[in-house]
């Protein structure tokens, strides 16, 4: 009895589970962002500045000024953690009219969630298939992913993917693929001509999934966080839906079955 996924529209009773899921997904990237910040120029600048302040203004012996190093590391950790926590809370509470959830059906006694997610071979839209109705009594269901789509703010007749989140316990694939494909199918049915989204430098795995499905990198830019000292690289990804539908077989993707 293998697990399967149902991609369905968001319902009001899903709100609590979705908020927890989005927070877990966003916070799972905090450690990688913290490590990345440690090797930026601003870290060395803060250490030198702290060292100088302790020695010149407070008269602390030079060898004791080495305490500036752990102090800066702790400061960076709290700053990164705080910014990710605020981001996760904002995304979790942000309303979105057009939202889908990925609900996994798995055996009741399943323990290794990541191993089970790798065995997902079936994906249904809106409801489980008739051939698995007899299995539902022996399975449990849980929301493990979500994705939202809104109108593009800068382009007419185009959409923009937001709030993509997948439970870290289950891994990104193949649930992320199914969620993105569901949005692309909806956009095609709605006769949109393009879909775009943005990923940051810490979202490399998610960006690779977009590229595998058929998205192209439209532009790479840097978003300023603290002047010119601290910047975050962003990648704007986009896909032409007409071209994607024509080349779907060549890029080896399948839209979830009804």
TrEMBL record:
Keywords assigned: Membrane, Transferase, Transmembrane, Transmembrane helix
Gene3D superfamilies: 3.40.630.30
Superkingdom field: Eukaryota
A GO MF label: N-acetyltransferase activity
Entries under InterPro entries matching the protein: Acyl_CoA_acyltransferase, NAT_camello-type
Ranges annotated as spanning the membrane: 66-84
Name used for this protein in its record: N-acetyltransferase domain-containing protein
Natural source organism: Anopheles farauti
Lineage: Eukaryota, Metazoa, Ecdysozoa, Arthropoda, Hexapoda
């Amino acid at each position: 009895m293998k697990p399967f996924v149902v991609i369905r529209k968001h319902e009001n009773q899903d709100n609590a589970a979705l908020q927890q899921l989005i927070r877990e997904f966003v916070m799972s990237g905090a450690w990688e962002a913290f490590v990345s910040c440690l090797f930026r120029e601003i870290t060395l600048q803060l250490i030198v500045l702290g060292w100088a302040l302790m020695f010149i203004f407070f008269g602390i012996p030079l060898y004791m000024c080495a305490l500036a190093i752990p102090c800066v590391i702790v400061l960076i950790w709290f700053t990164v953690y705080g910014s990710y926590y605020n981001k996760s809370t904002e995304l979790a509470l942000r309303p979105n009219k057009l939202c889908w959830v990925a609900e996994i059906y798995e055996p009741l006694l399943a323990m290794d969630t990541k191993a089970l997610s790798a065995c997902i071979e079936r994906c249904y839209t809106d409801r489980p298939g008739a051939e698995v109705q007899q299995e539902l009594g022996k399975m449990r269901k849980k929301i493990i992913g979500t994705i939202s789509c809104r109108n593009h703010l800068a382009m007419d007749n185009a959409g923009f993917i937001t709030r993509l989140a997948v439970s870290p316990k289950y891994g990104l694939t193949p649930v992320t693929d199914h969620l993105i494909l569901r949005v692309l199918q909806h956009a095609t049915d709605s006769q949109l001509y393009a879909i775009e989204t943005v990923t940051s430098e810490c979202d490399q795995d998610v960006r690779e999934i977009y590229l595998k499905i058929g998205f192209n990198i439209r532009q790479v830019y840097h978003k300023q966080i603290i002047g010119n000292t601290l910047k975050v690289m962003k990648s704007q990804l986009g896909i032409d839906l007409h071209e994607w539908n024509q080349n779907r077989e060549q890029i080896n993707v399948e839209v979830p079955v009804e």
